[in-house]
Amino acid sequence: MDHSIKKTGRPPYGMLAVLMVGAFIAFLNNTLLNIALPSIMADLKVEASTVQWLTTGFMLVNGILIPATAFLIEKYSVRRLFLAAMLLFTIGTLVAGIAHTFPLLLAGRMLQASGSAVMMPLLMNVMLVSFPVEKRGAAMGVFGLILMAAPAIGPTLSGWIIEHYDWRMLFHFVTPIAIIVLLLGFFLLKDKKEKVDIHLDIFSLLLSSIGFGGILYGFSSAGSKGWDSPLVYGTIAIGVISLVWFILRQLKLERPMLNFGIFKYPMFALSSSITMVVNMAMFAGMLLIPIYVQTIRGISPMDAGLMMLPGALLMAVMSPITGKLFDKFGGRILAVTGLIIMTVTTYYFSQLTEETTYTYLVILNSVRMFGMSMVMMPVSTNGLNQLPTRFYPHGTAMNNTLNQVAGAIGTALLVTVMSTRTETHATSLAADAMKHATGQPTEAAIAEMQQQIAMKAMLEGINDAFLVATFIAAVAVILALFIKRAKQAEDPLQKKSTDEKIAAKLVEN
């Protein structure tokens, strides 16, 4: 694939356009579903712990399949991979749209996930190969603009559809677009791939699936089941053991499924660490703001979606600007500035009250998103820039996998902090209320007091979770100080080949 793209001498804009539309639909579909979960619970009569599998299951399939994408990208052409991924995604969307039972809906989501797992690493790899290092920031910025538009319009569009139609309309809305993109890919993608004699190591795939799957499942389940559940710590332990075994096996294989040798390139290793930490902190906003807005403040899903819209739009608009600034100034100044903004605004989110205004929330979230727009794409692009071309599939697969794991860990950590601190605050507030109580309160007064204590305790729990996220973001600021502008490292195989040619010429002379 790499060679077929490079031979043209100019970036394959037609191919990139088709890939980006496919990735946009996959991203949009994911952001549409979050606001629909309460409606699905009511319609299919399932509990919150069951319905969360629509997001947890999606994450699990991604975590299992993404590590294999490095092998798939090396083995097959862009055309074959894109059509297979888009077909799976389209079938999954159709199944989910007609689902009248939860298992069928979950099966549809799993099929969607198996398609979208391939889409992102494939697109990232084509972009890395298509653009030289000095123009890569601007290209990634346009890519960011298109993908950030999905979370910008997703919650608002979802809120409007849920208020006016059945939740299945979310899937019916995506289905015709997915079919059109599939047909566009079939007729417009023409790249060929020379036959590559590499084979998938099945045992590596099994270890990777158990490793990443176990860790993702364990951390994702911790929020609902608690850390003392054998299912939680058992699956995490099995996942860690399998993952260590998987890494050791990859280091011994001549053609590893996922090459961990890429971590010897310092800027890539640093960028991976920063994006993992940022992902953990980022989930604070994605998870805690909707809980605060809808549960404590009683704001409708539509208004909650609209509240997030300006920040998401600002992030989308900033993406191409940030890309050009990255090409000019490098990643460090952008990342440090963006992370400081993100850390400060996350701290202000830890000071929420029952009287915090809607306008204040909109502005604070927008400034936070502005800071975030300076971080993710420049940092990951800078790290990938240091890798030799041969390692691009492994770099993109590794980044996407680690982001999934970081997201699961961040979510579990923040939910745990929120839950435990809410219980602590509830006990403290109840004791304080009993101390100051006068006379014998009525049952209605007791019920009202308990409700007030529960809301106040949850608010304080959310604030404490945001405070933890502030410290996590501060760690990313410190790491970002060590960023340097990356130059593409020499491929050890090419260097060996060059050295052998030089040695052969010396022998001839």
TrEMBL record:
It comes from the Bacteria. Its main location: membrane. It is a multi-pass membrane protein. InterPro entries: EmrB-like, MFS, MFS_dom, MFS_trans_sf. It holds the Pfam family MFS_1. The chain crosses the membrane at residues 12-33, 53-73, 80-99, 111-131, 138-157, 169-188, 200-219, 231-248, 268-292, 304-321, 333-352, 465-483. It is found in: Cell membrane. Belongs to the major facilitator superfamily. EmrB family. Residues 15-488 form the Major facilitator superfamily (MFS) profile domain. Keywords: Cell membrane, Membrane, Transmembrane, Transmembrane helix, Transport. The keyword Signal does not apply. The lineage of its organism: Bacteria, Bacillati, Bacillota, Bacilli, Bacillales. This is DHA2 family efflux MFS transporter permease subunit.
